[in-house]
Amino acid sequence: MDTNYYHNQLEQLNEIVKESADKKISFYKHVILVSSSILGIIISLHTTTSQCLYVRLTFVFSVISLLIGILSMVVVIYDFSHLPERILPVLQSEIENALKKDEKVKPVFVKHKKRTLILEKMSYLFLLLGMALLVTYNVFISL
After folding, report:
1. Which residues 6+ apart lie within 8 Å of 112 measured at CB?
2. Whole-angstrom Cα distance, residue 40 to residue 45?
3. What is Dmax (Cα atoms) for the chain?
4. How many CB atoms lie within 10 A of CB 19?
5. What is d(CA 38, CA 131) in angstroms, rounded to the nearest whole number?
6. Which among 122, 137, 138, 41 is positioned nearest to 75, based on CA atoms?
């Protein structure tokens, strides 16, 4: 029996999964870098002059929204970085079954965790909400 085919399939799948995970992780790292930089800038440039309650609340909610967006994005990166480890047992099982039955290896798919999908959407939502609240805050302080 020729095992080169199985070895090539394993290498190819491993490369594809790693490349995909690396690209997503890189994208999310850049989003976190930009978001945390914006957060640091707005906190450091925030004035301490007394303003109306709605202006202060808008600022606080924008900071909280950005923080939640950043933290949820960090969890998403963590989950994506562990995706190859979740695929490995499923792929190993599929290769063992294919070897026993002398068949070709079928494609193996592992779904993202429900937490990852929810936090991914949540992070986008809160980052956009934080930016919208910052714009609103700037409009309020210019009035």
Report:
1. 79, 83
2. 9
3. 79
4. 10
5. 9
6. 122
Question: Which residue has 């020729």 as its token pair?
Answer: 2
How large is the angle between the packed helices 53-81 and 114-142, nearest 10 degrees? 150
DSSP symbol at 109: -
Q: Which amino acid is at 32?
A: I
Q: What tens digit of pLDDT does each residue of 63-96 get?
A: 999 999 999 999 998 888 888 788 888 888 888 8
- Residue 42 CB coordination number (10 Å): 17
What range does the domain containing 119 cover? Answer: 4-142
Q: Please tell me the distance from the alpha carbon of residue 40 to that of residue 22, in angstroms, as a whole number.
A: 26
Considering its fold, how many domains does the chain have in total? 1
Quote the pTM value.
0.75
Q: What's the rounded Cα separation, in Å, for the pair 1 and 17? A: 27
- Helical H segments across the chain, by residue range: 4-45, 53-81, 83-101, 114-142
Instruction: Tell the residue number behind the tokens 């592992």, with chain if given.
Output: 110
